[in-house]
Amino acid sequence: MTISRLSTAVLGPVLLFALVGCATVPDAGPVGKRGARVAETLCEFTRDETPEGLSAVSRIEGDRYYCVDDRGGMLHEVEIKLNAAEDDGTFRVLRSVRLGGCVDLEGCAYDPLDGRVWVSDEKDGSIRQFDPATGRETAVVEIPGVFRRHMRRNRSFEALALSPDGLSLYAANEDTLVCDGAPATNERGGIIRIQEFVRDGAGAPWRPARQFMYPTEPVEGTRYSGIAISGVAALCVPGDGSLLVLEREMSQKNPLFPTFHARLFEIALSSATVPVEKRVVWDEETMFANYEGISLGPVLKDGSRALVLVSDGGGQAEERVIVLTLR
Asked: In this predicted structure, which of 158-162, 237-241, 250-254, 312-316 has the lowest mean pLDDT?
């Protein structure tokens, strides 16, 4: 979702049925008990003000990643270097290309099988593949009808992630589909559909598979300029049978300005509950940093895995990168 500029006062499970229609889902209930997996902040640093509006990140190899923005259909190849010893890092744009026909890119997933990139566009709710060298469209994912018929405006496919083997693709709408109930409120969270697609290999078409009904957290603050959201911003597939879900809340919790709250949860891809049970991995009030993208990073010296998050620094929100250690 593209969030409007902050005020100038700011200073600085599994559903195993077809789901071709809409389902009535039970109360999301409380967050599940904390699991053994925990993410801790390794480093956090400010990136350049441009490119503005980064909404997703996906690792290619080494220190190279793809990022997309939600203000013009641009794909950026970037270098993100970690320097945990000094509690900082560097972010550098290597090259950029415009992806034909894209407007509001929110999800990005590097394809390890052919070197191309899959993106989700919130403007039309599409998921397409592009050649990152030319920006030419090369494939389209067929979207289940329930999404096309019931997505809310500016709240469609916000999150996109590929499994490490390249055979499973996961996409999530940012906010509750119209047919699944109301968006998150102060009293209760919303329900998000995480759609799994599968394929037989590189170049093969994606087929819709399972859907996971995922409960978001309630909104903690009040509305700011008519907006208060608590929804899914990004997905990440570690490759161990789990899925990491990044939730993002924007609301007003003080008399002066709105702030952001980021939470990372883990669900089991073998889950059989409706809604799925989730376990909190990381929870932080990020103030003016609007984290919208997450990707696996490199394996660290102690054997743990880095998670790289990028913020959408649109307007007067902060342009930041945070690196978590997943233990």
From this structure: 312-316
